[in-house]
Amino acid sequence: MTVQAYNPKAPNNPAPTSNPQTSTELLHISEPNQAHAKPSDGSCGCGGTHNHSHDHNHHHHTHAHSHSHEPEFFDDGIRVMPTSDDLKRLSSDAELIQRAISEENANHSNLIASSRQSVPTITVNGVLISEQAIGEEVQYHPADSQDEALFLSAQALVIRELLRQAVMADDELKDEWQVDDENAISKLIAKNVHPNTPTDSICEQYYTANQGEFTAPPVMKVRHILFACPPEEGEERIELKKRAYELIDTINNSPNPSGEFITQAMQHSACPSKTDGGELGILQKGATVPEFEKVVFALPKGLAPSPIESRYGVHIVDVMERMDGKALSFDEALPMIRNRLSQQAFHHALIDYLYTLKQNADIVGIDIIPTEPKICYNTPMAYSDDFRQQVLRQLNCGKTYRQLAEEYNISTRTILNWKANPDRKVRTSYTSKIDLEKLRQDVLDYPDAYQRERATRFNCTDRAIAKALKRLKLTRKKSD
């Protein structure tokens, strides 16, 4: 394979994270969004599931050449196609450290193509990726700089050309390309990508390790009376709040408060839900505007003693039912876990397939896949003590090492002091940035705390390592 350097993804630019969904380019997205109840039709925007609520589905399109077909591989409708960044990830501590050293010593001027320069000639097995095609592709790849956008566009077209050539080499699929190119690619992938199906045992291990993620969200059944008023009308809002307090007293003093609420809603509410007695139906978080949601989800069951203000006006709110979130059992979480792990498995298998195509291709003009694809998304980059020591020993150059060593030593002393004197207050530059009580608890468990994802957020040593790795544009393990 022939590769000429054109890679504006220098160390000053972000590197891919270890979350496979966030580090991929979603060629097709067709997933349901919650109704955010931020209406353009004059309704109150309080969400809910009554007949007058308005769902706003937002369709995000990052890359597509044919809009007529959107294949679905999973229940949630996400069709995942990785960019070449996914094939750059390192599979071992040794590779990670070597990459860090290389980046520290890199000549950045050779990595970033100037925006004043033309895009180099790029070919895939002799097929030209034209400047015009790259220019047309740019609209699907927003980036911080023109160079970055051009690079993302070029690499997307190179990957697409690799797939096109694979389709044309398949006697069963080559005629499909002219009819529906995206469908042809989907069939090619289905034919050549064979991910492992996660077993119940693997799913149970994942559930045990990430149990905190699997909870049913809190939901509430709510009704309200809206006195509509723009946010800028301060004096009018004061008067409406007085009126709302009076109406709350009227409802509370009624021999039939529930019936009184319905009557008042039908007479006075400016929300279309008035015809249903003000009922908004079942609300989940994210279904209404933030300022309304924040207050409502903190309310107990019953009529709120005070009115609630939102951008739409003043609300009298009655919580008819509330069901707090609860932990899901393994059986309840199993479909979600299996779907998540299936997506990861498919993603890994797809990357391996693309790497195979790349290895058998002659690509000129762009360096998109420089390393082996054997990816371990759970490589504990900032966990093991051995790895920390290797980083400190081998990153023995430049400002990064000095700052890393200083932060590491400070945080190590802090941990030792806290271990020796758990009740003693130790002042460091970190004390204003971290949860001290959580840190105290975690350091007592040292080093077991390093094995838990949530603990690393508060552990000084891991924060120092993570900060240094971030400067080096490297990533550490994250839960899916």
From TrEMBL:
Composition bias, Basic residues: 51-66
Regions of compositional bias (Low complexity) in chain numbering: 1-20
Record's compositionally biased regions (Basic and acidic residues): 67-78
Signal peptide: none
GO molecular function terms attached to this record: peptidyl-prolyl cis-trans isomerase activity
Catalytic reaction equation(s): [protein]-peptidylproline (omega=180) = [protein]-peptidylproline (omega=0)
Gene3D superfamilies assigned: 3.10.50.40
UniProt keyword annotations, A-Z: Isomerase, Rotamase
Domain PpiC: 217-321
Stored InterPro entries: Homeodomain-like_sf (IPR009057), PPIase_dom_sf (IPR046357), PPIase_PpiC (IPR000297), PPIase_PpiC_CS (IPR023058), PrsA_foldase (IPR050245), Transposase_14 (IPR002622), Trigger_fact/SurA_dom_sf (IPR027304)
Isomerase among keywords: yes
E.C. numbers: 5.2.1.8
Pfam families named among the record's database cross-references: HTH_Tnp_IS630, Rotamase
Source species, domain of life: Bacteria
Region named Disordered: 1-78
Family the entry assigns: Belongs to the PpiC/parvulin rotamase family.
Protein name, UniProt field: peptidylprolyl isomerase
Source organism of the structure: Moraxella equi
Upper lineage: Bacteria, Pseudomonadati, Pseudomonadota, Gammaproteobacteria, Moraxellales
GN (gene name): ppiC_1
